[in-house]
Amino acid sequence: MDSRTMTVSDRMGVEEHRNWDDVDYSALLNGQAFPTNFMWGVATASHQIEGGNSNNWTRFEPTSKSGQESGIACDHWNRKEQDLDLIDDLNVTHYRFSLEWSRIEPEMGVWNEEAIAWYSDLVDRLLKRGIQPMVTLHHFTNPLWWEDLGAFEKEENIIYWIRFSSKMFECLSDRVTWWCTINEPAVYASMGYVLGEFPPGQRSFKKTRIVSLNLMRAHARCYRTLKSMENGADAQIGLVKNINLFDPYRRWNPLHRFQANLLDGMFNRCWIKGLKTGRFKPPSALRSIAVEGLKDSSDFIGVNYYTHLLATPFMPTKVEIDPLIRPWEERTDFRYPMYAEGLRRAFEMVAQLNIPIIVTENGVADDDDDMRPEHIRRHLHITSEAITDGFDIRGFYHWSLMDNFEWAEGYEQCFGLYHVDFETQERTLRTSGELYASIAKAHRMPQVVILAGGLGTRLGEKTEHMPKSLIEVGGKPILTHILDWVQGQGCNRVLVLTGHHGEQFDGFTHTGLDLAFVQETEQLGTGGALWNARDHLEDEFILLWGDDYHPIDYVPLVQSHRSKSSPLTMTVTTEHEVMNLQVEDGRLLKYSKEGDVPDDFNGYEAGTSVVNKSIVLEHGKDGAWSWENTIYPSLAKQIHVHLDATKFWDMGTPERLQKLEDFFNETRR
Ligand code: GAL
Prior knowledge:
By secondary structure, the chain is of the alpha/beta class. 33% of the residues lie in helices and 21% in strands. It has 20 helices and 27 strands. The radius of gyration is 27 Å and the shape is elongated. The model is unreliable at 1-5 (pLDDT under 50).
């Protein structure tokens, strides 16, 4: 067998190595590798990018391994909007960042309102762009006053971090759904207290045990506290665990196996078991301890995955010495190997928790970017495969958005999708960044286009000159209900075609969506409205009627559209009093909106379709015209039909409007 496709297995599991030359990556770029509601993200941490901090790290830096100081880092604190553009350009739907506690509470009990406002504003700006924030509450850094109290070395200090966490939850949870409690507790404990490479730079097994235990206590308390607060029930709160795999260098050598097993137990298993059982046995401790509230204290598990390490009893404890690798493996700039196969093993490890998995970090130190594109492809391929095999993986955050201060390594290790010139602060998109952006683009939910200009002429005097989509039903405009649904389906970009009374939409907003409006100077009908907005249409979009509420699942609709490569996929219900079309073999045969329909008509257009912009460009024309009466008949046989029996609600007449009102009042109860 070719050594590159070998799998070595024994009671420690399998160390698989693939022959990546044979892997077909085409699904990554044609949008077939991930579900459409998958979260596409990039990740950062406050101290690594903000600059100008004063915390346990800034104090430690002069004595750190690299001796480099974080200084102004990426100067992100002063370049918020510009950096948001960078995120936006990657086509991601989610952004993970951390809150710098030392800025927010620079002295015990003293809150820096300006800093809090900065983060709150960051959240608002993200949401305006349709990017969902994911907030990390602890990512390695501590305020100096808390460090001086002994940080996680003392159980009684936890209360201060919980106070900070609840304060920030109170400020942001009305807009932030995703929360990470602690980033990589095992890394914090082992780097700070075993290897001494992170502050406080100690080497003490006793302290490692105590700190580990207190990290778990802090996580559990944080989870319980936030969950009990307002918005807690709806928030998704989880621990972020770095899974570092340990494989015996020589599998036949019992000492290597013993060492790998020992390290795996201390670095990975004990933490996962703790979350699962509520009893935690800190690394090198002899017995486990019940931690209050720890069992089931995560709504999701964040997985940070970078590599595997080959274990012998004489492993280097200093990172200067190159770690062992397999002969066919390639070293990253960090000197450890690229080993994408291990991500699958990380999924297997955390899957026993039976909660959704999110890759909260994965990336590579690779300054010249000759490895990162392949690194991205391999790790996404493994993730996609695992999803197909049934793992509940919801998202993937690339580490990192841009080159930044890599802790003990200083600025030498470059993890960014953007290269940063630290002299000029210029950011440049790397080839790998382009790749990641195109993979995200191929998979994310299409833009949503809503035909919202039709007037409520038949609904009485009050609405005669009012777009129907703005009529309130169930306490808010029907358009808001539609947008709630759209957002819940994972869409984040919406274009509202407001018709010729567009000014009535002035001031209309919806948190969490990148919302744009296109107005018409005269009444153009549905087709004319789309033609008029052609410059704002993306290549593929979901088309909705602004006066219909059609709560269907978009994932199968969009996936079937993409897999059939048809220019238009229309949702059809066969459960309707009247019929307006004929379907055969999944294609539209005939369509007629008006009058009596032939007996062989067997379906009704339910209102949600996926459209390729090319149709608008090919069939569009100036003036007023009807989309459905023009496009459906002329494209009939090419139109793909997606059958879905979900009831749709329109408000064409006062009676139907009343029914919709009853429906919303019913569902609200
Ligand atoms: C993780 C850490 C990040 C980043 C990354 C790259 O352990 O959470 O902050 O430094 O490693 O090494």
